Every structure is written in structure tokens, then in C-alpha cells.
């Protein structure tokens, strides 16, 4: 896992447009798990475009610190359908 925010941003910049599974801790034992793709990266945050589901947000944003503190875990899908976990445990 990357040890600095700049390293995390660099890795995510190289993953733009890739399919992923997002697992995020929402507090008080609530964890969300959704799929989508990495849409955009900004200096302080990144944006994930989520797959369409009823009554849910279509886009979510998190800071790079969320990955560093293991609040958010991203699992990217490679070209062969295998998972590449990044962040979290």
C-alpha cells in the first residue's frame, strides 16, 4: 500500500476509466459495497461513477486520505477479469 498521499494520487491517475469495486466504511458498523469505474481525479479527491441502482447516489467522491486510513478500499478489475485489491486491509 502507498505510504503518501501523492503516491496514492499517482496510482489512481493511472487507473482512470477502469472498472472497480468500492468498499467504504460509513461508520457505526455500516459498510457499503458498490461497483462502478474511476471517473475523475482532482488534487484532493477522486470521483467514482457508480453503476445504476434504485434510490442511490450515482457519483461519490472520497479523499486520498480515506485510502491511506483504510476507510475506503478499491478493487480494480484487470483485463482478464481478475481482481487487483488496493487500499484497506
From TrEMBL:
Transmembrane segments: none annotated. Gene3D superfamilies: 2.30.30.100. It comes from the Bacteria. NCBIfam families: BflmStimVeg. This is Biofilm formation stimulator Veg. It comes from Ectobacillus funiculus.
